[in-house]
Known about the structure:
About 15% of the residues lie in helices and about 35% in strands. The protein is an alpha+beta fold.
Amino acid sequence: MQCLDPGRKPKLRRLPFRLSICKVLSVADLPTEQGFFFIGRTEEEISLVCETAHVPERVTAREDGWRCFRVEGSLDFSLTGILSGISGVLAENAIGIFAVSTYNTDYILVRGENFEQAMSVLEQAGYETSGADREKGDEP
C-alpha cells in the first residue's frame, strides 16, 4: 500500500460485514481464528469488535447492528485530521461512530440504520467511496 497524499481527502471502502461490539471476560473467549475482529484490552475490560456471526458465547455486554468502512491506503503517522474530518461530517448529520485504528489505517463503524446516510453525506462532502453495496449474507 502507498501512503495517503496529505493534500487530498482519503478514499473510503465499505466493508461487507455485520458487526457487533462486545465485552468479554477472557482472551480465551476471543474468536481469533474466525473472520474480521479487533481486540482492545485495558485494566477495566476486554472489548471485541467482530462479525456478528462470530460473537463468542460468553460475553458480558453486546451491541449488534453495526456496519463499517475503512480509510483506504496506509496512513502515515504524521498525517493529522483524517478521522476528525470524517467524524465531523458525520457529527454534523447526527450520525454517531465507533472508531478503531490499526497500524495502517482507520476503521469507522456506524449503526446499520445510519450506514447509507453516512456514506451519502460523506460523498456529498467530497469523499470517494467504494466497496460492498450489500452486507455479506444479504440476498440480491
